[in-house]
Amino acid sequence: MQKEKTKTARIPIYHLYKNRERLLELKQKQINYYQDNNIKLPEKFDEEVHLTEGLSEEEAKELQELFNTGFQNWDKKEYETFVSLTEEYGRNEVEKIAEGIPTKTLEEVKTYSNAFWERINEIPDGQKIVRNIERKERQEKQKELSIKLLNHKCETSNGEYEDIKILYPNNNRQSEYSLEEDQFLIYITNKCGYGNWDDIIREIRINEDLMFNYYLKSRNKIEIQKRVDYLVKVLEKEF
Fold it and tell me: Which long-range contacts (CB under 8 A, 24 or more apart) does 89-93 make?
């Protein structure tokens, strides 16, 4: 009766080997050889790249070539940091990503990033990672557009928020906000910077013109962002 195999090959995802599946096959073949012959696996077998036992000469050469395509000097924490920073900044901001991985040089991160995107379809949850990154990239593009539109609108108002003209779509203006409130939101968001909602809320609460505007003062960050995003869409249609 053949002895049941009790160990399976383990190849870290974060080493980004080219053709990881084939590498797993070859390492599993070695495991089977050791177990079939009642030989104890060498220490750190999974990381050992020079073992040839259980493989033909061609397979041993193939194993070595596949190991050479990977990044053995990257650990799990560095990989997770790389993915997290790529999701935060976008795939093209390699310098920012590298700044967040102090254990790696910029060139190391560039090389790793290139391999990551070449082999993204071989990475478990790779498509989920891609969706997260693409969503963040879309958000950043929308943020850049919002900043440009708000700035352009305020430049035409002579520095006074009361002079800001808003061309609302017909029958499509949300009535809970007044024209003056919308004007102020455009002005103060441009001043504080889109996305700096804490600063915007603070300015709303201390502005003397809004001293008795309890409605606007009682709005939270989510509500303010939602209204500003609506106004940005109005500006986008205008321009």
Answer: 89/136, 90/133, 90/136, 90/137, 90/140, 91/117, 91/133, 91/137
Number of C-beta neighbours around residue 39 at 10 A: 11
**For residue range 28-72, what is the model confidence (pLDDT) as tens digits?**
999 999 999 998 888 878 777 788 899 999 999 999 999 999 999
Cα separation, 239 vs 233, in Å, equals 10
* Residue recorded with tokens 């557009």: 145
Q: Report residue 140 as tokens.
A: 């950043």
DSSP for 169-200, written as a single string: PTT---TTS-HHHHHHHHHHHHHH-TT-HHHH
Amino acid, single-letter form, for residue 124 = P
Tokens of 102: 């102090």
* Closest CA relative to residue 73, chosen from 109, 30, 24, 25: 109
How many angstroms separate the CA atoms of 67 and 16, rounded?
10
- The dihedral region occupied by 75, where left means phi > 0, alpha psi between -120 and 50, and beta the remainder, is beta
How many residues in the chain?
Answer: 239
pTM: 0.69
